[in-house]
Amino acid sequence: MKNYVIVTDSTSDLPVNIIEEFGIIVLPLGFGFENENYLNYPDHREHGINEFYDRIKKGEKSTTTLVNAKTFEKYLEPVLNAGDDILYLGFSSALSGTYGSSLTAREELLEKYKDARIECIDTLSASMGEGLLVYCAAKKKQEGCGLDELKQWILDNRLHLCHWFTVDDLNHLKRGGRINTMTATIGTALGVKPILHVDNEGRLIPVSNVRGRKKSINALLDQMEATCTDPEENSVFISHANCLEDAEHLADLIKEKFHVKETVINHIGPVIGSHTGQGCLALFFFGTER
Description:
By secondary structure, the protein is an alpha/beta fold. It has eleven helices and 13 strands.
């Protein structure tokens, strides 16, 4: 069976130890402040993650850029030169043009490497939801799962990857056009915390509102209780935008209630964090439906 390499992008927010353990290639998206431009590597080598959120909290605005086709070619061509095939699991196409860039790069590379195989899959996922899908795929590959079988497993399971978020700063949702100025102003004054999820088309959708941080964290737990499947056999991922204590508290609640096999916590990187702001807390698990 021909070897293949799993590739994803930095919006998967995977911890460095998982990336290294499974030999996953991670393509960095870009972000920046005014005239400063950086690449979002998983180890945050170009810009510290805590410093990033400090700047966001002070009101600086960060912009983001996708991975273009030329960058894909730069990262993928060495894999093809080594004689390996490629399985790329990409950031939701509803949230970024990165997946589209991968298809363009695929066409260009296959013109040159005619015997190669490059599979590009839209995960319809974001942050550690994307990361959890990649992690499970990498474990299956390690167990001997072939490319065809793994591709089908991903297509069969990606819409069972549940994403539930709450944000602490409504102004970031306002800037992203998800709520209007009046809603943001009134909501902030009342301590309203929106609950959002990623739907079957890979879009970030507001679902409900609760009052206060404690209730918003409990709301994430309630959503998991409503739809999660086989928690004792599956991993749960939690990502956070510079609110580690809340993430650890949520992890403790989950362990106590569901006895999950494993919980993994990591930062929301600067690309996703540019749109959520500081204080976002996100929960990812496998469930009956999104």
